[in-house]
């Protein structure tokens, strides 16, 4: 499994953890819309859209504190973007 695939799986799990908080903060309808928008971003995520995804999370974290734990650390981003070593 690629590093990006692992990252996407981890992000989906973290998103699921904050789903109910999004619904409480924004109401069921808006919370679900935010959840679905982030889920779609995660599913379509690739190396070229990673920066956009991180920027979205940073903006969301201003509103929903729990979203901060979804923002990847520098080492994690570096690991995802690092080219695979040939064997």
How would you explain this protein's 3D organization?
The model has no long low-confidence stretch (mean pLDDT 89). It contains 4 helices and no strands. It is 71% helix and 0% strand. The protein has 87 residues and is mainly alpha-helical. The relative contact order is 0.16. It has helices at residues 3-26, 28-43, 50-63, 74-81.
* H/E series: HHHH
Query: What is the 3D shape?
Result: elongated
Largest sheet: none
Question: What fraction of the residues are assigned to beta strands by DSSP?
Answer: under 5%
Structural class: mainly alpha
Number of helices: 4
Radius of gyration: 14 Å
pLDDT averaged over residues = 89
Uncertain spans: none
Number of strands: 0
Considering DSSP H and I runs of 4 or more, what fraction of the residues is helical? Answer: over 70%
Distance between the termini: 16 Å
Note the topology.
Layout lengths: L2 H24 L1 H16 L6 H14 L10 H8 L6
In short:
This protein is mostly helical and 87 residues long. The chain has helices spanning 3-26, 28-43, 50-63, 74-81. The model has no long low-confidence stretch (mean pLDDT 89).
Main attributes of the structure:
mainly alpha; 87 residues
């Amino acid at each position: 499994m690629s590093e990006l695939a692992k990252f996407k799986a981890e992000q989906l799990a973290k998103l699921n953890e904050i789903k109910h908080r999004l619904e409480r903060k924004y109401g069921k309808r808006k919370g679900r819309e935010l959840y679905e928008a982030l889920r779609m971003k995660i599913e379509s995520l690739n190396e070229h859209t990673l920066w956009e995804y991180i920027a979205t999370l940073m903006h969301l974290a201003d509103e929903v504190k729990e979203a901060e734990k979804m923002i990847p650390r520098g080492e994690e981003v570096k690991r995802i973007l690092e080219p695979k070593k040939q064997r």
